[in-house]
């Protein structure tokens, strides 16, 4: 079963914020709000609207985490939006990907704030106290999700935890990373206390207690990482001991399982969270809705695949990126010859289109050419696993290697060897942090985790600059400095309220 929590036409009209300036967190007018929030279904639709802003999340991960990292050497023939991301240009403030990340995440935050405000004011219309509590918890989980996404990209952020008018938004400056973390952590702690452990029926796929635990563990781990001398996600807080029990609770719950076959995790036939036991939290899509596929289907499967490949197999509808965004030689060569993950994740066979032959590899993990959509390239029918069980296991190993109590080197080795056995590889002993991150790189390639893994490793600058020296045949990538661990504040935000924000250093 494939679905996304989406808006009906009426709720879309009411809830969509259509502002010329992304800073303007324009609230729903009092008259519209009073008209809309009158029944439980209204509150459910408003909650669904918050989920809807996850739609582009996987594409954002591809464009701003994978392309930014040593997994992609994507310098193109002409200038594309990904070029300045891949080559560490200091002139990224007007980049479309950067602008989209800020605007979409804050739109999700706006929607969460609106729902929380309306439950507080009109909670009697929700229908039951238990449903009101659950919807509040879902909104807080999603608000935390969007804020954490923003924090890892931009560092300091304006804290907006209630609906505000445009003039009010234009007076709210950026708060410290520490204060943003306080909001995220408080939201997730509240979500953990109030979200159910499972759902049934049409609610399957909504955020659960375990999704909130996994996200909070990631928050503590990102916060614990070195700060590189900048105001980014790492603060050196050393809170690995706070993350580990959350991860262990998920593992001990018995609700999830390690899939024995790697390809099954991403199978189009294994998409329901009720069936795919690796899926702790999905971004959910549905395909084939007549006239609306551009809204509800997925486009991320082809984001890092070239248009010429689809044309080479006589598919004129799916398209893809305008030019190839190649997997780096360094990543492709890092796989052992027996590693089954490489053939599944990376296309290496080459292809010919219009007389031109291309042999550079590209990511294909989410592609199944027997499932090419018939209506639109935006209508792929596969969910995106935003949090998966193997990640929880490997994050547990990372906490232990960073000194968290409650685990041992034997536990770390057992986790890594479980992953390696599934990939067809021999066991290893005495796994180090560096080896763990190398294994994560291959396991989660094309899932958007690499840039954030590099942030946590503390070795981002060393790894990236060493990679550039080996990989950058065109001499197009600039040296990576600490300021480039995060992105610039979008130019649209600087222009919306001149003087309110200062640009991140280095841009």
Q: Which parts are unreliable, with pLDDT below 50 for 5 consecutive residues or more?
A: 1-31
Strand order of the largest sheet: 1-2
CATH architecture: Alpha Horseshoe
Helix fraction, binned, reads 40-55%
pLDDT averaged residue by residue: 91
Q: If helices are DSSP runs of H or I spanning 4 or more residues, what is the number of helices?
A: 22
Helix- and strand-based class? mainly alpha
Alpha-carbon Rg, integer: 22 Å
How many domain units? 1
- Euclidean distance between termini CA atoms: 44 Å
What is the CATH third-level topology name? Serine Threonine Protein Phosphatase 5, Tetratricopeptide repeat
Largest sheet: 2 strands, antiparallel
The total count of strands amounts to 8
Order of helices and strands: HHHHHHHEHEHHHHEHHHHEEEEEHHHHHH
Question: Describe it for me?
Answer:
The protein has 507 residues and is mainly α. It has a single domain (40-284, 383-496), classed as Alpha Horseshoe (Serine Threonine Protein Phosphatase 5, Tetratricopeptide repeat), CATH 1.25.40.390. The chain has 22 helices and 8 strands. A two-stranded antiparallel sheet has the order 1-2. Strands 3-8 form a two-stranded antiparallel sheet. It is globular. Belongs to the SusD family. Residues 81-221 form the SusD-like N-terminal domain.
Summary, kept brief:
The protein is mainly alpha-helical.
Write the layout of secondary structure elements.
Elements (H helix, E strand, L loop, with lengths): L8 H7 L14 H7 L3 H13 L4 H10 L15 H5 L9 H27 L6 H26 L2 E2 L7 H4 L4 E2 L1 H18 L14 H16 L15 H13 L9 H4 L13 E5 L9 H4 L10 H6 L16 H6 L5 H6 E2 L3 E3 L2 E3 L3 E2 L20 E5 H13 L7 H14 L10 H11 L6 H8 L2 H12 L19 H6 L11
Antiparallel strand pairs: 1-2, 3-8, 4-7, 5-6
Helix pairs in contact: 3-6, 3-7, 4-6, 6-7, 7-9, 7-10, 9-10, 10-11, 11-17, 17-18, 19-20
